[in-house]
């Protein structure tokens, strides 16, 4: 990861001061670096030790960071990773344009791999992510959304880059089709579990731990799984209150909504869904050679369910 951070620092250089300033601001905020870590773990599990793994790990982090910059503008977010978002600090135009810079820099870096399969995976992933963003925008304030539609969004918007990161590790290692698919399945399941737990924390976390404002999803009119489950399990009056809150983004009702989500057992339902995805990831990781790296993949999936931020 130190090698990846060195690549990130080197490739963030720009002759335009604002580009470097905004890029450094969001990258230096830290974050979990899960996607590059996933790529490195898969490379390790499959025995690939080439330097290209550091370059592509930085590429997936750049793509992820670009999506964060754009997401925060679309969602009008003010807090991420415990501090003001880039759009809050530098304005929306700078955030959008620097996000574009990070996307284009990532595509420049992809060329270093000299591998059309790598290009195909990352080009397809960025396209699916963009579709997921648009799909989520279309679903805003839609209280009729069901679990299948919810999963479609997060598998496009969040899980796709996890899937691509794991698949890239297999491609770099020259793995066969069966192993590559197992890695991709691991990444997709891990990314889905990660987002489902994130949606739990929006109703069962603390702002200080989470690094973002509690209730942001409700304010944005997002019908996430805790709310979908609450409408399925609640009384008619509770269902109506949740429906109204989704359709209007009524943050003033947050306390009541949190109470309904907890009283109906919807957080347990959502955690169970995340656990099923984590188990799917574990099953996929068990198809890889047994070593300390594949053990790391197993531990990552198991520990994801315990995250608080």
TrEMBL record:
It catalyses: 5 isopentenyl diphosphate + (2E,6E)-farnesyl diphosphate = all-trans-octaprenyl diphosphate + 5 diphosphate. Keywords: Magnesium, Metal-binding, Transferase. It comes from the Bacteria. One of its GO terms (molecular function) is metal ion binding. GO terms for biological process: isoprenoid biosynthetic process. Its cofactor is Mg(2+). Transmembrane segments: none annotated. Its EC number is 2.5.1.90. Supplies octaprenyl diphosphate, the precursor for the side chain of the isoprenoid quinones ubiquinone and menaquinone. Belongs to the FPP/GGPP synthase family. This is Octaprenyl diphosphate synthase. It comes from Ramlibacter lithotrophicus.
């Amino acid at each position: 990861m130190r090698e990846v951070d060195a690549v990130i620092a080197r490739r963030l250089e720009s002759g335009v001061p604002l580009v470097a300033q905004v890029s450094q601001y969001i990258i230096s905020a830290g974050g979990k670096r899960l996607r590059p870590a996933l790529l490195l773990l898969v490379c390790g599990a499959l025995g690939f030790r080439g330097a290209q793994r550091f370059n592509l790990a930085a590429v997936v982090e750049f793509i992820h960071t670009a999506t964060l910059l754009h997401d925060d503008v679309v969602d009008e977010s003010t807090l991420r990773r415990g501090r003001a978002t880039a759009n809050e600090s530098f304005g929306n135009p700078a955030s959008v344009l620097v996000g574009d810079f990070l996307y284009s820099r990532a595509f420049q870096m992809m060329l270093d791999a000299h591998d059309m399969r790598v290009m195909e995976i990352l080009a397809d992933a960025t396209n699916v992510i963009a579709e997921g963003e648009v799909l989520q925008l279309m679903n805003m304030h839609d209280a009729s959304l069901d679990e299948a539609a919810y999963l479609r969004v997060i598998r496009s918007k969040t899980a796709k880059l996890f899937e691509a990161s794991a698949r890239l590790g297999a491609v770099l290692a020259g793995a066969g089709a069966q192993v590559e698919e197992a890695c991709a399945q691991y990444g997709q399941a891990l990314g889905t579990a990660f987002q489902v737990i994130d949606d739990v924390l929006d109703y069962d976390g603390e702002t200080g731990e989470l690094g973002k404002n509690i209730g942001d999803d409700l304010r944005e009119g997002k019908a996430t799984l805790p709310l979908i489950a609450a409408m399925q399990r609640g009384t008619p009056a509770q269902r109506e209150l949740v429906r109204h809150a989704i359709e209007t983004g009524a943050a003033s009702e947050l306390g009541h909504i949190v109470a309904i989500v907890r009283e109906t057992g919807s957080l347990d339902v959502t955690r169970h869904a995340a656990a099923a995805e984590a188990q799917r990831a574990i099953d996929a990781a068990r198809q890889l050679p047994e070593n300390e790296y594949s053990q790391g993949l197993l531990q990552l999936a198991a520990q994801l369910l315990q995250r608080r931020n």
